[in-house]
Amino acid sequence: MNIKIIAVGKIKEKYMREGIKEYSKRLSRYCNLEIIEIGDEKAPENLSKKDIEIIKNKEGRKLLSKIPQNSFIISLEIEGKEISSEELSKKIEDLMVGGINDITFIIGGSLGLSQEVRNKANYKLSFSKMTFPHQLMRIILLEQIYRGFRIIRGEPYHK
After folding, report:
1. Is residue 29 within 8 Å of residue 3, measured between CB atoms?
2. Residue 159: which of 92, 86, 83 has the closest Cα?
3. Could you report the per-residue pLDDT of 3-58, keeping only the tens digit for each?
4. Binding-site residues
5. Domains of the chain, first to last
6. DSSP letters of 74-114?
7. pTM attached to this predicted model
8. Residue positions in the annotated binding site for S-adenosyl-L-methionine?
């Protein structure tokens, strides 16, 4: 299984980079993982709705250009479906059994995802109605993917 995470923004904090590195190492037993960072657009305070859409569209085009053809696309969105860890593992397992070899997770920037990216997604996933920093969301996503593979394999995991 090939898992790709395409995310807006760079991880600057050392502790977050170390967390990502740790979960990437753990996941290497279960899948081929690739994390792609795209640069975020400058977004000053007090943007108009039009300016917000322009920025999201610019970031969206960059995100879309990195998605492999025939990949199953899961966008992370507040408006997406909230599921349990077990349900996420079942989703991944069902995709694998169904012959899907590539899953791409999309994490938008601080303003969210463009409508074009949202439309392209095969599945919209929400971790919560709360807003999380997109840098932290990378670690949370990696942990949940790792947990999902452990559940699929019947290996112990912390409940």
Report:
1. no
2. 86
3. 999 999 999 999 999 999 999 999 999 999 999 999 988 877 888 899 999 999 99
4. 76, 108, 127-132
5. 2-152 (3.40.1280.10)
6. EEEEEEEEE--HHHHHHHHHHHHHTT--EEEEEE-BTTB--
7. 0.94
8. 76, 108, 127-132
